[in-house]
């Protein structure tokens, strides 16, 4: 098995340590030779970097080298795989996105609605610069991207790099939901084979099968309708906000038992309820700043200080393991099935070809081979097309600097709908993001 070189872009991310634990847990499936962290914030990255040095010394002594750097050439030239997880504007701008939408009585969320629009507009330019920089030094390394909002980022990347066959956008949410399914069904996560369709953070499972062929869909629906479902993955199990989200799965399924919904549909199906429970001074971004971010960096400091991870609660999570297994399937031509974001091209038969859809795909060394979904029913088709219109208009606006495209986008978005509100939100978003979006000035 060829050993892989991995570069983590956004080495200072709150997810980096979990990702390293996942690489350690998956070393049999995805052995590595060299690991590099790259970030534009040297100080933030150094904490993850120094803690990872300790971690790898203990748990990956066979690694040839590990380093963290802000030098592009050093970071990019030798990688077989790039795991990308950047956040333009940081969690502070995420908080602003959420607050702006909430002040207009609309859903204030990282990737959904007006917040997702603002974040998307910020992410596109940095993702383009990053991909240009990577390709200057590295022509065919796999760029596996987690950067959000994945739907808008994927749409923009597809337009800018239509011929680059080695960029793949991924979301961990369907997998995190499947971890809960596996627990409910009392089986192993890796034995579940999904059939899934939609846009990112906007889709449905139409089937869950066991690797042995057994269709578990009706059994699973029955369990959820009677007992509900809990968040169980390590990263979210102790998070009240994620538990509340998973609790809503039962309500969503009761209200529409056709398909098993993605958690993020709660923002589009119950926008009033989602707004009502929010506190503008303690949105999800603030909870993450006081929660995950604080926890991760305090842990780094303790590990660095002690020179050991002894006694630390460190765990792999599905976020990391899903990405690593995707990389393994691509690297070793395994053809395993994963849910990823790809150009539609007839996969969902009655949706336009140039939509970036999230579907189950076989991953080989030639890239994703999505499975056919066929025709989808009118309700899901109409939902998807409206949201797709929003996503495409946001990307149009990024290229053109045309504010009207953004107003139209939010008018289509189920979390906004009213044109006067859309106009007011767009004005506030552009004002708050002036420094990131010169094309609108
Ligand atoms: P974070 O702010 O903690 O970390 C992001 C890191 O990226 C920071 O260290 C920052 O300095 C760095 N960065 C910013 N711009 C950069 C650039 N241009 N080049 C290199 N580095 C840059 O954020 P986080 O909460 O850890 O999340 C990271 C990203 O992963 C976000 O986009 C988040 O939405 C995304 N995410 C996606 C999924 C998914 O399902 N696709 C799941 C989890 C997280
Ligand atoms: C899920 C989603 C991601 C999102 C993440 C964190 O994993 O798939 O796209 O970024 O949750 O959300 P949070 O609100 O906890 O920061
Ligand atoms: Mn996601």
Short structural summary:
Helices cover 49% and strands 16% of the residues. It is an alpha/beta fold and 441 residues long.
Q: How would you describe the overall organization of this protein?
A:
Helix content is 49%, strand content 16%. The chain is an alpha/beta fold. It is globular. The chain has helices at 16-25, 42-59, 72-76, 90-103, 113-137, 150-160, 173-185, 217-227, 240-255, 265-269, 271-276, 284-306, 318-331, 378-400, 403-412, 419-432, and strands spanning 4-9, 32-38, 65-69, 81-84, 142-145, 167-169, 192-199, 202-210, 260-261, 336-343, 356-364, 367-370. The model has no long low-confidence stretch (mean pLDDT 98). It has 16 helices and 12 strands. The strands form 3 sheets. The chain has a 6-stranded parallel sheet with strand order 3-2-1-4-5-6, sandwiched between helices. Strands 7-8-9 form a 3-stranded antiparallel sheet. It has a 3-stranded antiparallel sheet with strand order 10-11-12.
Q: How does the major sheet shape up?
A: 6 strands, parallel
Q: Which percent band covers the strand fraction? A: 15-25%
Give the CA-CA distance, first to last residue.
52 Å
Q: What's the alpha carbon Rg, rounded to whole Å?
A: 21 Å
List its salient traits.
single chain, 441 residues, alpha/beta, 6-stranded parallel sheet, 3-stranded antiparallel sheet, 16 helices, 49% helix, binds nicotinamide-adenine-dinucleotide, binds 6-O-phosphono-alpha-D-glucopyranose, binds manganese (II) ion
Describe the secondary structure blueprint for this structure:
Blueprint: E1 4-9, H1 16-25, E2 32-38, H2 42-59, E3 65-69, H3 72-76, E4 81-84, H4 90-103, H5 113-137, E5 142-145, H6 150-160, E6 167-169, H7 173-185, E7 192-199, E8 202-210, H8 217-227, H9 240-255, E9 260-261, H10 265-269, H11 271-276, H12 284-306, H13 318-331, E10 336-343, E11 356-364, E12 367-370, H14 378-400, H15 403-412, H16 419-432
Parallel strand pairs: 1-2, 1-4, 2-3, 4-5, 5-6
Antiparallel strand pairs: 7-8, 8-9, 10-11, 11-12
The structure holds nicotinamide-adenine-dinucleotide, 6-O-phosphono-alpha-D-glucopyranose and manganese (II) ion.
